[in-house]
Design goal:
This protein is mainly α and about 150 residues long. It contains 2 helices and no strands.
Length: about 150
């Protein structure tokens, strides 16, 4: 009997490849989210530091310097809001990628189950054929020779 060959093996390989591509893309998106959150945390830390500096120097600053500090703090707040928007957009994109990943996994698993089923059928048929061959050998071995007569 010929070795087992799954007719849809190339399709299964393609689905595994696509699933891996999506998994890699998901990893990249998550890494980008972490960088955006880190950047926001940096802006937040700078905001807190600048605010403390402004409070410490309030009596020693001119109106122009105070105005510059407020502009700087306002700019930092804007950067933080921008990072929030970036993170929000990335999280939405992450959800889309997760859904694609789930679909890709389902597609792959369907083919893998089909392959397992076909392999089980192949093994069953192989055992059946082997059993039949053994029975034929036993019958041939124990069959009386008809050319020899008494």
């Amino acid at each position: 009997m010929q070795p087992f060959k799954f007719d849809l093996e190339k399709l299964l390989s393609l689905r595994k490849f696509k699933e891996e591509e999506i998994r890699v893309e998901l990893g990249k998106v998550r890494s980008t989210i972490e960088k955006a959150l880190s950047k926001k945390a940096d802006f937040q830390a700078e905001y807190e530091r600048a605010l403390m500096e402004m409070r410490d120097k309030t009596g020693q600053m001119s109106a122009h310097e105070i105005q510059q500090f407020y502009r700087y703090l306002s700019g930092l707040k804007g950067y933080m809001k921008n990072q929030d928007l970036i993170v929000s957009d990335l999280r939405n994109y992450e959800k889309e990628i997760i859904e694609k990943y789930k679909d890709a996994m389902k597609d792959r698993k369907i083919l893998e189950k089909l392959k397992e089923k076909k392999l089980d059928e192949y093994k069953y048929e192989a055992k059946k054929k082997e059993k039949k061959e053994i029975e034929n050998l036993i019958l041939m071995h124990h069959k009386p020779d008809s050319s020899f007569s008494i």
